[in-house]
Write a structure and sequence with these properties.
Elements lengths: L2 H17 L1 H8 L5 H22 L10 H22 L5 H8 L2 H13 L5 H20 L6 H28 L1 H23 L9 H29 L1 H4 L6 H12 L6 H19 L3
């Protein structure tokens, strides 16, 4: 198998793993506090990251890399998990997945900002139309909407896009999976004590489904998914393999409907499809 084909396969596996993150989080926050879920998943993944880095004898990052690693940690280790966990207290995972359709665009936008590129006007046209679809969808829900959940999801997309862009830039120097591992290690001294401080007073009320949700977001969403994702980006190219992320909303909607038995209305499907098309168009004219 050539390097490019391997990159596409690894990227696809990464996206497939990430697609289960929001449904798993939705299940976990039913019994776990969102703050505890955030710090616990980071703490568990951080311990595993330490083991990986020691086992493969990875060199420590340079002091100049610490600021970028901090941005990655704040974006994908703390910001996105916490904001989505809080959002899923107000909205369903199917609803939240519509917003994930904006994640590739947010990543591209921060990539443009960090890389100093000058995208063509069509890029901003697609960007504006895609954002309008999402805002229009949220407003169309009317009294049944949860504006707090929508705003939290939008904030989650922004910080995650920044974390992805910064991580992609840093991975050229440190390597793909090493970036998320070092970001987790950097967060561990804060996450581990917070996990102990915020843990439930009693575990009796925590059901098996919540434990499975915590296990999934800790092992797969926080670490294993990034191993495949960053490997795919490095092998097949960030711009090319990054397109696979457009499939994530569809995978997530299928999981929300089949595993959580949530209602996925046609409006959600059409809005998600429209957002994906807009993001694809924006990607096409990003350079």
């Amino acid at each position: 198998m050539d390097k490019t084909a391997s990159g596409w396969i690894n990227g696809f596996l990464g996206v497939l793993i990430f697609s289960g993150s929001l449904p798993a989080t939705r299940v976990a926050v039913a019994d776990f506090d969102p703050l505890f879920l955030t710090v616990a998943r980071a703490g568990i993944a951080g311990v595993l990251a330490v083991v990986l880095l020691l086992a493969f004898r990875q060199k420590r990052p340079q002091p100049a890399d610490l600021a970028s690693l901090a941005v990655v940690a704040l974006g994908v280790v703390v910001g996105f998990p916490l904001l989505t966990a809080l959002a899923l207290r107000h909205i369903t995972s199917a609803h939240s997945i519509v917003f994930i359709g904006l994640l590739p665009l947010a990543t591209a936008a921060f990539g443009v900002f960090r890389g100093g590129e000058r995208p063509r006007p069509a890029f901003w046209l697609f960007s504006g139309v895609g954002s309008a679809f999402v805002v229009g969808f949220a407003l169309a829900l009317g009294s049944g909407a949860a504006p707090v959940g929508d705003l939290l999801m939008l904030a989650a997309i922004v910080v995650c896009g920044l974390g992805y862009a910064e991580g992609a830039k840093l991975s050229r120097k440190l390597g793909g999976w090493q970036v998320i591992s070092w970001a987790l290690v950097l967060s561990l001294p804060v996450m581990a004590p917070l996990a102990l401080w915020t843990m439930p007073a009693s575990w009796a009320a925590v059901g098996g489904a919540a434990w499975l949700g915590l296990g999934y977001v800790s092992l797969f969403s926080m670490l294993i998914g990034f191993v495949f994702w960053y490997r795919g980006l490095s092998q097949g190219g960030i711009a090319a393999v990054g397109q696979l992320q457009l499939l994530q909303p569809f995978f997530g909607l299928v999981l929300a409907a089949t595993l959580l038995h949530e209602t996925v209305g046609w409006s959600m499907v059409w809005v998600t499809a429209a957002v994906v098309l807009c993001v694809a168009g924006a990607r096409r004219f990003a350079a």
